[in-house]
Amino acid sequence: KKICVMGLGYIGLPTSAMFAIHGCKVIGVDVNEKVVDALNKGEITIEEPYLDIMVQAAVRSGNLIADTKPHEADAFIIAVPTPITKDKKADMSYVIAATEAIVPYLRKGNMVILESTSPPGTVEELMLPILEKSGLKIGEELYVGHSPERVLPGKILWELVNNNRIIGGINRISAEKIRDLYKTFVNGEIYLTTVRTAEMCKIVENTFRDVNIALANELAKICESVGVDVWEVIELANKHPRVNIHQPGPGVGGHCLAVDPWFIVEKTPDLAKIIELSRKTNDSMPQHVLNRIDEILKDIKGTKKVSILGITYKPNIDDMRESPIIELINLLDRREDYEISVYDPYVKTHKYQAKDLIDVAQNSDLLLLAVHHDYFKNLPLSDMAKVMRNRNFFDTRNFLNKEEVENKGFKYFLLGQGKS
Ligand code: SAJ
């Protein structure tokens, strides 16, 4: 089989490499020449465990090449970004451009598969009118469907193979053909359905997680006010066989949870009430963290320095997209009375990035644990304490042990923990 993958990002690149090492001929297409040139040399432009080794193997085998233009193929997979605009509407311009780009290359018997997470109706209402320009009979000569990715950044390669998959077709035969293609490497179950159901399922999965985290974040605020520890409350409540509350934190980031629920709100604004409120609740967390910082440092006169540990949207990756920590930094930036320094072992380019863990703590009034990178598990707290002006430690992830932090001479504060 020959497969043309449109978009060489977090999904398109691993998917291309996976098909290639399973014997398919893959052309990876990206509008960014740098990405294309790198891939043709066997190099990658994103960070994901083991992806470099796999891409190298795929390129060396001759099964994976990259280009800025599509090639003829048996199957076309669209894995381009579907971000949201400032007013929280889906920006479908990349999907439209990729669909238009493949039209001249489509032949009888081809498959076109959307992988990008998209609002329900995208394939039928947006893509089919474009694909019809090929002159092929949709559903009979051209098989079309949605096979949403479900992989977790940081575990992409394992999940790509082992996760169950939902495949929606514009008709049954399309779904079946697409399933047979993905069986090339998928070990999980593959469930077939309609294209619109598949689109909805994908968004619902991420919405479930976002709403659940919003509940945890609201509980964090409530527990601070009631005078208990939300982490203990959630841990104990989750001992119930039918309770599974997620973890609170400084907010929800990434290109999935912080984005996809808006696709539902956009379609049905009068109905999607809990979903919209949850998004807003999670988006309120950076401000809540700032309120806590204000409270912790209220007795310090003049400019206060906050040292932020971690800036990515979640631990052990280099991805800063929609990171709530960036939002927190923006909020602090707007305040005259705060100075900021940041240290993240995965991010080298941020304007406030310090040289190392000692540098970030220099003259600081507060260490803020913002992202629970494994790297921060063994912070040199004694050495950091020595260079600080005031020894305050604020854990927004319940990551470090309270006693250990206090033993190093810090005053310890925890998100979601109130004074009783
Ligand atoms: N977060 C919390 N509390 C939690 C769990 C996560 O605050 O209990 C925060 C994280 O810190 C992060 C954000 O949520 O800022 C999102 O992280 P994540 O690990 O939940 O998910 P993503 O965005 O990396 O990947 C999600 C996954 N979806 C689900 O688990 C339902 C993944 O399987 C999807 O493939 C991916 O979105 C996607 O591409 O849609």
From TrEMBL:
Q: Which residues form a coiled coil?
A: none
Record keywords, A-Z: NAD, Oxidoreductase
- What Pfam families does this protein map onto? UDPG_MGDP_dh (PF00984), UDPG_MGDP_dh_C (PF03720), UDPG_MGDP_dh_N (PF03721)
The UDP-glucose/GDP-mannose dehydrogenase C-terminal domain, residue ranges:
307-402
Query: Does the keyword section mention Isomerase?
Result: no
The answer to whether keyword Ligase applies is no
GO molecular function per UniProt: NAD binding; oxidoreductase activity, acting on the CH-CH group of donors, NAD or NADP as acceptor; oxidoreductase activity, acting on the CH-OH group of donors, NAD or NADP as acceptor
GO BP annotations, alphabetical order: polysaccharide biosynthetic process
Q: Which InterPro entries match?
A: 6-PGluconate_DH-like_C_sf, NAD(P)-bd_dom_sf, UDP-Glc/GDP-Man, UDP-Glc/GDP-Man_DH_C, UDP-Glc/GDP-Man_DH_C_sf, UDP-Glc/GDP-Man_DH_dimer, UDP-Glc/GDP-Man_DH_N, UDP_ManNAc/GlcNAc_DH
Q: Which SMART domains does the record associate with it?
A: UDPG_MGDP_dh_C (SM00984)
Question: Which family does the record assign?
Answer: Belongs to the UDP-glucose/GDP-mannose dehydrogenase family.
UniProt-listed NCBIfam families: NDP-sugDHase
Name by which UniProt lists this protein: UDP-N-acetyl-D-mannosaminuronic acid dehydrogenase
- Source species of the chain: Caldicoprobacter faecalis
